Amino acid sequence: MYSKILAGSSALALIAPAFAGTLTKSADVSKPAEKSALTFADGLVTVDLEGRLRFEARSNNRNFDDSINDANDDSWVISRFRIGVALQLAPWAKLYAQTQDTREWNSERVNVPGVNGTEGGDEFDLRQAYLQLSDYKEFPLGITIGRQPLNYGDNRLVADSKWGNFGRTFDGAKLRYQQDKFWVDAFAVRPVQTKEEVFNNNDAEDNFAGIYGGTDALGFQSTELYFLYRDKQDNQSDLDPTNKLDPRGAWNGPAQRIYTVGTRWKSKKDALGPWDYSAEFAYQFGDTWTNDRATPRLEHSAFATAITGGYTWKNAAWKPRLSLEYDYASGDSNPADGSSQSFQNLFPSNHAHYGFMDEFAWRNIHDLRLQMNANPTKKLELELDYHLFWLADTGDYWYRSNGYSTLRTTTPTGANVRTVGANNFAGSEIDLTATWKVTCTLTIQGGYSHFFAGSYLADTGASDDADFAYLQATVVF
Questions:
Q1: Can you give the CATH number for the domain in which 121 is found?
Q2: How many structural domains is the chain composed of?
Q3: What's the pLDDT tens digit per position in 433-464?
Q4: What DSSP designation does 21 have?
Q5: Measured between alpha carbons, how far is 356 from 423 in angstroms, rounded to an integer?
Q6: Which residues constitute the domain of residue 269?
Q7: pLDDT digits (tens, 9 = 90+) for 264-311
Q8: Which distant-in-sequence residues (6+ apart) come within 8 Å of 270 by Cβ?
Q9: DSSP letters along 313-330, please?
Q10: Contact 472, 52 (CB under 8 A)
Q11: Which of 158, 214, 315, 348 is the most exposed place for a label (fewest CB within 10 A)?
């Protein structure tokens, strides 16, 4: 594995400078066109580009078993290229479209999106296409119609999946009301499915709507409130219901009809001197099903929270920050009682929160996280994370980063892992990450993670440690 890490690192080190080229400035289509380097026709046309190349090497990430060498005990390179064009039709009207090409290289995994974790196989598809009508300086209401990303809060429940190679967008409409210290969004959308060799359409049986708002009225924190509703009618009938994988796409969960209400608080910068905090609380109720709505209905009631506190030594060299975070999401205590307490993670971007090896979601989890950040230079950031993981309830499964896939469902003897009374300590993980902003267009990031297997793994099957390393180059302009 380590020879592969060195080989992949060397390759990216040679490729990255070529990515940088002579680009001069990062472009953001949400900013005025005149601030972008790639503008034409007096700012009426803006072009943005992103190229990302990542080398990964993984060992035991899927099974924690040294005796098995599966397709994920390997190394590969994944690439992503995006090009977008914005037309500023009027000060209050913008038309935007973006295409995306994702590929996976030198991998033993099947080159089909989502199958066995594959992150390639969707070549030049439509990622975004929307019409935005808004000018909040003149009028408080705006609307965005079409294919678009949604990002709220810390991205724990609704987000474009930024680490994943495909990302996430939705088809639908979003209405925004915005004033100086207050804003609120109301949206009704359907998630876009990533499929192989066909146009990525939305899931017509998966309807998602919500109201999400925030205010800065309190001088020391931003406060957000939200109400979310997901009505997923089936177990994705256009995908294979027997193994949840299809030759043309990836599964995104069983049928459910749930409501999520919550709030998020985050301290404003410098409001508490060197201290900072954030907290989020969410409660869910409604109905879930094991697969589709032909299976018995489960009455759903679940809860999740995430609390963080940090301290920054602002006058010290490197400006180090130390923080402690606790994440909790309820699990289902009894699979046979006709109810479910397993918190549903909806449409998250989980990579930044529950360990960089992506072994966990905000579902059936206790996660205690110690984090240290430091900036040796303005362009270099170092990060060290240490996680301790427990399952909230061993009557439920261990859910991976997407919130649906399970680590294992049976023991080597064939017993259901939910019934064997396993110890709930899953293990611990250490993550080392370095991010180097080489230029205003080129960023290089690398990391290494090690997972120390806990008692739960030993009680339910193989319990060998796991490793993950990567090197990534990203160019945006």
A1: 2.40.160.100
A2: 1
A3: 999 999 999 999 999 999 999 999 999 999 99
A4: T
A5: 23
A6: 2-476
A7: 999 999 999 999 999 999 999 999 998 888 889 999 999 999 999 999
A8: none
A9: -TTSTT--EEEEEEEEE-
A10: yes
A11: 315
